[in-house]
Amino acid sequence: MEAVGSGQLAKDTPMVPVFAEDAAVARPLYVVAADALDDFLAAQPDTVREWLTGSGFAAALGDLRLIPGAGGVVAAVVGYGNAAARARTRFALAKAVGLPAGAWRLEGELTQAQRDEIALGWLLAQYRFDRYRRVKASEATLVLPEGCDGARLLAMAAGEYLTRDLINTPAQDMGPDQLEAAFVALATRFGARAKVVKGDALLEQNFPMIHAVGRASPREPRLLELHWGNAGPSLTLVGKGVCFDTGGLNIKTAGMLLMKKDMGGAATVMGLAQMIMQLGLPIRLRVIVAAVENVIAGNALKPKDILTSRKGLTVEINDTDAEGRLVLGDALALATETPVDVLISMATLTGAARTALGPDLAPYYTDDTEMAAALESGAAQSFDPVWRLPFHTPYEHIIEPGIADLDNAPGWGFAGSVTAALFLRRFADHPRYMHFDIYGHTPADAPARPKGGVGQGARAILAGLPAMLGL
């Protein structure tokens, strides 16, 4: 374990999810729906039936019972509830990851989608953030259920683990330097090409808004870029990497406690990139991350400053706490300077998105209905809920202040996520562009999602890519 404040990556070897290898010795984990309980009990030996009925087992969703036998626990039964209960809770059976040590195999009448959800939930529930304290890991493993694509499930879980590690690490150990190190390490692991532009070189290479947001920090702002794959359709992912956000001179009066997660967009596109590269998808992948800290110093960006962006658009700064759209603006301008088939940005951008949809549902924007349909299908397949919000063009005038081309924080009081998305669309200027305004944090422990950093939308995108890119 690295010492606190070491400035190193969280782990020399990233934690990786696994399935059980020795299926021959796996004990059964019976999954029993409420409407199938009577038939299940009738098929059991008297001792098992009496044990389950005597303990009050009613097949409620997630209710786990261990079955004793000679030499210890010989099996387990977990309730699968009814359809209404299952619709209310994703990954409800992930609590079974607390089973006794050893290999377990699923038994029960399950659809393929149900087996996929249980297997993915099991993997995600194994995640532990153990950089600063010892956390007991589960010693129970699951045999890959029948019909499941193990490579795909493991890639999704591994990408999610990376995202969670990055978001969970506090800013003292996950500033622009460490985010760069993690980014380069990811590129190296998969044989990708990485490029870094930082400090005053940002001005020399025309990234003025990234430089302006991050210049007040002693940890230099930077642009990170990764290229992977030499053939196939092209996908560019752009992530907001604000490693900590004080709000700048418009200092946050509330909500600063969670601002280590303001690089959640960067963490999520990096996790998605890992999934893509681990699976070897036949595409050309480009990842762009703007990594900065938004802090206070004498040279900090000031309210009413006017910046000239990489794209040439001028931006009046009406709130230094609306910095994410500034760094993304330069990054998106770079992304569209070369041809790309699909462009996606991800950012923890607005509180308005949280107010509208809460912490669990990831809002996204696109003008391309086919991309939206592909994403919605992918979200259902990968148990990764999303919700489409509109690029409402009649609101364009709200982000035009008169003194400059654009206003970074119009203070209108309405549709804050929509106006932020419209701001970004000016820089993306691409017909097949999709933007996610994510939260990146689970506020309380939930099945397969412990309190803390979490990826949103990445699995949905991964599942939707074949349709988006014509694979």
For the record, the CATH architecture of the largest domain stands as 3-Layer(aba) Sandwich
Indicate the CATH topology of the largest domain. Aminopeptidase
Shape: elongated
Distance between the termini: 41 Å
**Quaternary status:** single chain
What is the structural class? alpha/beta
Helix content percent band: 25-40%
Q: How many helical elements?
A: 14
Query: Biggest sheet, open or closed, and with what strands and sense?
Result: 8 strands, mixed
Low-confidence spans: 1-11
CATH superfamily of the largest domain: Zn peptidases
Domain Cytosol aminopeptidase: 162-461
Domain M17 aminopeptidase N-terminal: 28-145
Family: Belongs to the peptidase M17 family.
GO cellular component, one term: cytoplasm
Question: How would you portray this structure in words?
Answer:
There is one protein chain. This protein has 471 residues and is of the alpha/beta class. The chain has 2 domains: 23-148, 3-Layer(aba) Sandwich (Leucine Aminopeptidase, subunit E, domain 1), CATH 3.40.220.10; 153-469, Aminopeptidase. It is 32% helix and 20% strand. The protein has helices at residues 37-42, 46-54, 83-88, 112-125, 150-168, 176-189, 201-204, 208-214, 264-279, 324-335, 351-357, 369-382, 416-428, 458-469, and strands at 27-32, 64-69, 72-79, 102-107, 140-142, 193-198, 222-228, 234-245, 284-294, 306-308, 314-316, 342-347, 362-366, 386-388, 406-407, 433-437, 441-442, 452-453. The strands form 4 sheets. Strands 6-7-9-8-12-16-13-14 form an 8-stranded mixed beta sheet, sandwiched between helices. The chain has a 5-stranded mixed beta sheet with strand order 2-3-1-4-5, with helices on both faces. It has a 3-stranded mixed beta sheet with strand order 10-11-15, covered by helices on one side. Helix 4 links the parallel strand 4 and strand 5. Helix 5 runs antiparallel to helix 9 (264-279). The radius of gyration is 24 Å and the shape is elongated. It starts with 26 loop residues before the first strand and ends with a helix. Mean pLDDT is 93; it is low at 1-11. This is Leucyl aminopeptidase. Pfam families: Peptidase_M17 (PF00883), Peptidase_M17_N_1 (PF21337). InterPro entries: Leucine_aapep/pepB, Macro_dom-like, Peptidase_M17_C, Peptidase_M17_N_1.
